[in-house]
């Protein structure tokens, strides 16, 4: 399982999301064996967690530039 987690950890958000979408379609089609569907589901859970972490990291990096009345520029986190 560590190799799977390591391979997912190195994926970009877009690659992980694309693979996750493919897994969902494959499971929804019902054409996989039960064992294969379970393995796909487990990988899908890891991909979902990875995507959520990437989004959270991006959210924390977003900052808003504000200019005070006396022309002081500062950065403040954006409240999404």
Q: Can you tell me about this structure?
A:
There is one protein chain. The chain has 80 residues and is of the alpha+beta class. It has one domain. The chain contains three helices and two strands, in the order αααββ. The protein has a two-stranded antiparallel ribbon. Helix 2 runs antiparallel to helix 3. It is elongated.
Physical arrangement of strands within the biggest beta sheet: 1-2
* Helix content percent band: 55-70%
Principal-axes geometry comes out as elongated
Class from helix and strand fractions? alpha+beta
Task: Describe the structure concisely for a colleague.
This protein is of the alpha+beta class and 80 residues long. The chain contains 3 helices and 2 strands, in the order αααββ. α1 packs across α3 (34-61).
What secondary-structure arrangement, pairings included, does this model have?
Elements (H helix, E strand, L loop, with lengths): L1 H8 L3 H17 L4 H28 L1 E5 L5 E5 L3
Helix pairs in contact: 1-3, 2-3
Give a quick set of tags describing it.
80 residues, 2 strands, alpha+beta, 12% strand
